[in-house]
Design a protein that fits this description.
single chain; 21% helix; 434 residues; 25 strands; 8-stranded antiparallel beta sheet; alpha+beta; globular; 4-stranded antiparallel beta sheet
Amino acid sequence: MLTAKQNELVTRTGPETAAGALLRRYWQPAALVDELAVERPAVAVRLFGENLVLYREEGGTYALVARRCPHRGADLAYGRLEDGGIRCPFHGWLFDGAGACLEQPAEPAHSDFHTRIRHTAYPCVARNGIVFAYLGSGSPPPLPGLDCFVAPESHSFAFKGLIEANWLQALEVGIDPAHASFLHRFFEDDDPGWRYGQQFRDRTDGAEIPVTRLLREHTRPDISVDPADHGFRITSLRDLGNQGTHVRITNLVFPNAICIPLSTDMVLTQWHVPIDDVSCYWVGLFTAFKEAVDKEAMRAARLELYALPDYRPRRGKENNYGYDPAEQKSQTFTGMGMDINVHDNWAIESPGPIHDRTTENLCTTDKAIIANRRLLMQAIDAVAAGKALPVSLEGVSGPVAVDTIAAAGDWRAHWKQTDRSRRARSPWSMVKMP
């Protein structure tokens, strides 16, 4: 458990907070490119408790500026996109994407007052359907060489979903391998199509085993957490007896992302981005190694589950997550439908907007959560002291995320070979496994 003071330290991310200062040292998703694919490409966004406006500039790049005009506080979400920037409709002040005030057309012609105005602005870069922003001070680092950034747009799909709880609650569900045997338990093994959580896995003898049965029947994973350049590699092993060992490699990409396998071909890198202290978005990049993705089909499938414009889940706390006690008896462990994102949202939101970690009792399977909290507090201390970050993503590649079944006694070599084989089949992957 954490003390009340420690819980405040790691959960609060607004301006002038310690955890906020840390997270701002990394590139963070600000919005989906799809959100600006309209006649007027501008959208109000809220990140880390700051109200901002994201817009596409005339040259196709993106700019992120404070929502309130520094003149008299008018709302720049209604600004005019013209003359190389965003212009306030109140008095015509014009700002560029770097925060410079270019014009004050109501002022005397000889006035240079505009040169003394600096508007809050943050650097942006778009990659594979997501606009990333750097909210820290100084020059931003380069984007790391993660698979989700290296992959071509044809092999990537971006989406997001609203979570009405603190960012750390969302992240801690993502780095908890044990919950899948319960929270995502299905009592039927029918082929579910695209839904994650019910795919079939190949055994070493070429036969298939439904992962639903595997998770349902093997509830005690052997979990290890190993330091890595990107944060942690989390290995979860389930002994299948004479069928081998189920090996699942997931990752914490510090400070607020996870990288997990969805199938033999697709990996999800998912950030948990604070809107404020009591809400966040999961923002995901789905990356395929071999086949180009069908973006329209993937988007249509997810829009059945999420409502625009705020990407709110159609099943949530306002409708009890679709809970059905009859379903809970015979079909799913939760009674909340077949979409595991609904299950996750319930687990994230049900402890309250900010979980009181002074009341919890952590156990063996929580070792990744414990390790991450230690690293998080270490990193917060480093930023406060002006020291180097304990995890820098510069130059980082991968990471490896696989879900496979290895022959008994050979799981370490098997998961590495699984990744090598996948990358060898990929038309774009340049990462080489050791």
